[in-house]
Structures are given as structure tokens and as C-alpha cells.
Predict the 3D structure of the following.
Amino acid sequence: MLQQDDHDVVVIGAGIAGLAAAAALVAAGRDNVCLEARERIGGRLLSKAGPPGALDLGATWFWDGEGRVADLAARLGVDTFEQHLAGDTLVQDATGVRRLPGNLIDAPARRFALGADTLARTLAAQLPADTVRLDSPVTAVHRRATGGLEVRTSGSVLYAQHVVVAVPPALALARIDFGSELSPELVRLARTTPVWMGAVAKVVAHYPSAFWRDEGLAGAAAGRIGPLQELHDMSGPDGRPAALFGFAAALAVGPGFEQAVITQLAQLFGPAAAEPETLQVQDWSSERWTAPPAVHHLADHSLFGHPLYRRPALGGRLHWASTETADRYAGHIEGALAAAERAVTASLTTGEANSCSR
């Protein structure tokens, strides 16, 4: 028999947006449950622990002016540090490798001393017991004839007055049955909105030391050839752990990819770069609970923060809260927190009477 229970709000997704929404709802006195499809929290905040510190396989930075992230980290006691910027930039193209003076790629930013997912883990630890349910992918969200919404997983039916969708809209439309309840305009928008990092592979090379700094390099590079298109220093505080990371199109990942990465690293940074202690490839397009099947074809980033995402759906009871739906800082942790804040406010103030879309 399916488990049945009632809540004021059901939050879908335990990435940083979902966790922030759940925490805000608790603070507002609302009973809520946060359903996460994976067996871990954090979503695209994913860090690989290793002494000392951690290496981020997902979100890495936050920038000046992103006050929500800074305030949350301070409130949770999560230590941050400044991104290393000093040194020159490398550019690789068909003619070879050029060294340009100064760091022409990175902007002043801050990082999380023990990895970005520390933010999610620390926030989740402050939620009431049983708020977050792991391994609970949502399969359907429908309106109830008696009012409110019905949320289904493989093992449960939950009834709620509001639902906060804290996963990418395209993923939600691919994995969750909304029936015919959403407007055609909203369905088209959600299905075509790109997933931030969804078509990207992040590659992290861990070294015994940040040798490039000794050579006056920032670790910042642009690749016009080779799998990595953009590279940065990902070393921890005081250069430990020492690491470089780069972004590649996820479609490039396949047989020979890792060797091509190592070859490119050596071409850019010299022989020492050909011998990383570890090389980790995080292909976000292969993550079932991040990327829908069509993720490689979603390319119109102007859809981020579309006004429709600010209009509660399903009679004013369904609210969008992923970073893709933020009208500012979309794709950033700050955007995820802003979208969660908006969704929670709407869930506390919006009802049937002022719904803007069915």
C-alpha cells in the first residue's frame, strides 16, 4: 500500500534551491517535505573530499554582489576564501600556446574552503529530522478536485497546498507527469529551457603542488583546440589541494577523452601537468537527475529567468525554484537562492484567486 501523508508544501529537489526553500518554509512555520531523487543531497553542488580540503565537480564560485550566498555561508559558519588570480593567462590555438600578461579570464570571486557542497550539507543538517527524503523521485503532480495538489512517488502519495519545483524545468517536464494541467505556453518554455551545466563535462586534475604558480601562471587558460575550452586554478586555500580544472562539451566525452585532456594540459602547462595524481571527469549530461534526454539540444539561454517562471501555475500552487528560473544570476548559486526565495514567498501569499496560469 502506498504511504499517504499531508503537508503544507512539497519541495521537489534537494539541491541548494530546494534546501533553501525547505529551510525558509520551516522558518515560516510551514510543514514541508523535500523529495530528492538521488541518494545524496546537493544537486549540482558536488565536491570530492580529499585531504586537505575538497575539489568541486559542480558549482565552484560566488562573486561580488551575490549577497544571498555570502550571507548564507556566514550564517552557517561555512568558511570561504578568495579565488587565486595572480599570474598570466595561456591561450591555445592551432598555432600553438601563447602567454598573455595578467589574468584575462578570472574575475574576483570566492570559493568554499571545504567544497561547495558544504553549503548544502550544513543547511540540510539544520532542517528538522525527516524533512529530506532521499531516493524519492517524483513521478506525477496533479491538481486535486478538493483543492491542493497531489504528488506521487513510486512509494507514496503526498497531498499539499503548494509544490515548489527546485529542479531544472526541462528535467521536471521530462521526468514528472503533470497531465494536461500546465498551459501549452509554459510546457513549451520548460521543455526548451537549457539546463545549467547540463551539457557540460567538468574535468579536475589534482597535482602534488600548484607548480604553475611558481612559473608565474594563474592557471587560467583558453583552449581553441583540444577538449578543454576554458581552464582555471581550483587549488584550495594556500594552494592545497593543488588542482586545475576545465570545462568541455559533454559530447566530447568518450574513448580517448582523458588522454586528450592530459595531452592538452601538458601542452599548456608543461610536462608536470601530464602527471596528475587524479583526473576526475564529471559528465553532467549523463546525470539522470540533472539532465533530460534532449539536454544537448537546449541552447537558448535567453529563456533563463523567463517571466512565466515567476507566475505560479496549477491554480497558483506550483512554483519554480531552480537557478534557471531566476531573473538575475541564473546559473549561479545566487540565482538558485533567489529563485527559492521567490517561490517560498509566492507559496505563502498566492492562492487560487490570483493565479496567473492554469
Residues 83-110+199-286 form a domain with the Polyamine Oxidase; Chain A, domain 2 fold (CATH 3.90.660.10). The chain has two domains: 3-43+120-196+290-354, 83-110+199-286.
